[in-house]
Write a structure and sequence with these properties.
Mean pLDDT: 84
Number of strands: 17
CATH class of one domain: Alpha Beta
Distance between the termini: 58 Å
Strand content: 15-25%
CATH superfamily of one domain: P-loop containing nucleotide triphosphate hydrolases
Strand order of the largest sheet: 8-7-17-16-15-9-14-13-10-12-11
Helix content: 25-40%
Bound molecules: adenosine-5'-triphosphate, magnesium ion
Low-confidence stretches: 1-19
CATH topology of one domain: Rossmann fold
Largest sheet: 11 strands, mixed
Radius of gyration: 26 Å
Length: 436
């Protein structure tokens, strides 16, 4: 498309005291022609684009035209290097509302949505409205997930994924990386229990306390040495059986994940404000996800709302990153919701492996959506996302529902439009407005 910078002739008009309009001087300026790509680079806010693919998000605040988004389509055309999205903004700006709209509108075009952890319980009504599934996990509840049953259908390939999952769970409860000897002890315990038709965490914990004599993977270690190596693991994993998370992950699953469901939400609001419980629950649920998606073909959003709470757990971030690496193979677009980019700093100090993981997550998000930011976050946001100065200066002035959409080759300021039905369904402000 060629876009004209203006009419070929610009005529300057001057008003004379008599009130008549006269044209005393004509300025003849050459027309300026450039391709859409050039204009898009020179005037990123002004170059409109046709809205032909993807779900309608809202209005492009600079062109007044519609703005659509489909990460798979943009990835297919090479505009995005990956389909993942990071969305950051201060509280109450409409981040979750945008994620819910993207989800619901994508479902209308045959996509699926998975919310592997909903700490506020605000996604359940959305899932119910689209005929999806809500899995509610709470202490004393009736729902139980077995993190080890996900790969039960294929025992030959189950050992590695189960071991990685157990490692992440143990590292979360112990709040440290496992030592080499502990990896060996966990490996031996898993080997002991995996011949069972339905291995569970209590089986693993029992095998850690009393290692079997003939464990092939023990590699010549004595059983008493294995028991010694697995002592901390035993106590760490026992928390999932006897501690505050008892009854949630310590037996056969009461629910099967249906990969064909339009939306599946893991409602974790019953776990309260315990970030560690949240990380453990999401780690357990990630085993499910891997299993369910292995044979699935539909494109899928995986939405990490309130991801900043997960970023406090290094093993959870490590797992998240491993799953993101697989996202293209599974046709997944991940959406990670933060308050500010500096939430990523919570993972670890600069130079550490943990921090590299967090930076990797951000690097794996080709689309960056920034809602309003506090002024003390502007410099860090600009650096982290590579924003230009005018883009940075916009951030503190953005209103609710309006965000800066930064993609590798173009930037938009988009006002997200909610329909009346969506407004009612996505409302998280009701409690604030109630008059008592
Ligand atoms: N584009 C929009 N137009 C009109 N109202 C909106 C829009 N986006 C969000 N809202 C309303 O603003 C309120 C807060 O939105 P939302 O819960 O999505 O914010 P949030 O950024 O996710 O907040 P938090 O950080 O607390 O999770 C909701 O009641 C929602 O209905
Ligand atoms: Mg929210």
């Amino acid at each position: 498309m060629n876009t004209r910078g203006g009419t070929a002739t610009r005529t300057a008009a001057f008003s004379r005291p008599s009130g008549r309009l006269r044209l005393p001087v004509s300025l003849r300026l050459p027309a300026h022609r450039a391709s859409s790509a050039t204009l898009g680079a020179a005037y990123p806010f002004l170059a409109g684009r046709p809205c032909t693919t993807g779900a309608l998000v809202g209005m492009d605040a600079m062109t007044g035209g519609p703005f659509c988004f489909d990460p798979w389509a943009l990835y297919a055309t090479g505009e995005l290097t990956n389909p993942n999205v990071v969305l950051a903004g201060v509280i109450g700006q409409g981040k979750s509302a945008l994620a819910k709209s993207l989800a619901v509108r994508a479902i209308a075009t045959g996509r699926r949505v998975y919310v592997p952890g909903d700490p506020k319980g605000e996604w359940a009504p959305v899932a119910e409205a689209v005929g999806g599934v809500v899995v509610r996990l709470r202490a004393g509840g009736t729902t139980r997930l077995n993190p080890l049953d996900a790969h039960g259908a294929d025992p030959d390939h189950a050992h590695g994924p189960r071991l990685r999952l157990l490692t992440a769970l143990a590292e979360t409860t112990l709040r440290r990386d496992l030592r080499p000897a502990e990896h060996g002890a966990l490996d031996a315990a898993m080997t002991t229990v995996e011949h069972r038709p339905q291995p569970t965490l209590p089986h693993v914990v029992a095998a850690l306390a009393e290692p079997a004599g003939s464990s092939r993977r023990a590699g010549g270690t004595t059983t008493s040495a294995l028991a010694e190596d697995g002592r901390d693991l035993f106590h760490g994993l026992r928390r999932l059986i006897r501690g505050d998370l008892a009854g949630l992950f310590d037996g056969p699953s009461t629910q099967v994940l249906d990969a064909s469901a339009s939306m599946t939400v893991l409602d974790l609001s019953g776990l309260g404000s315990n970030d560690e419980a949240l990380a453990l629950a999401m780690t357990c649920a990630s085993g499910w996800l891997e299993h369910a998606l292995a044979g699935a073909t539909a494109k899928r959003w995986v939405i990490y709302d309130e991801a900043w709470r997960l970023l406090r757990s290094v093993p959870a971030v490590r797992r998240m990153q491993a799953q993101w690496k697989l996202s293209r193979a599974y046709g997944i677009a991940n959406l990670m919701i933060l308050h500010r980019l500096s939430d990523l700093d919570a993972v670890g100090a600069a130079g550490t492996e943990a921090r590299a993981l967090a930076d990797g997550l951000l690097a794996d998000c080709s689309t960056r959506i920034v809602y309003r930011q506090e002024s003390d976050q502007l410099a860090a946001t600009q650096t982290a996302l590579g924003l230009t100065a005018p883009e940075r200066d916009l951030l503190p002035a953005l209103g609710r529902g309006t965000g800066l959409w930064k993609m590798p080759r173009r930037t938009h300021v988009v006002h997200h439009h909610l329909t009346g039905a969506e407004l009612a369904l996505f409302d998280t402000d009701a409690a604030m407005r109630e008059v008592t």
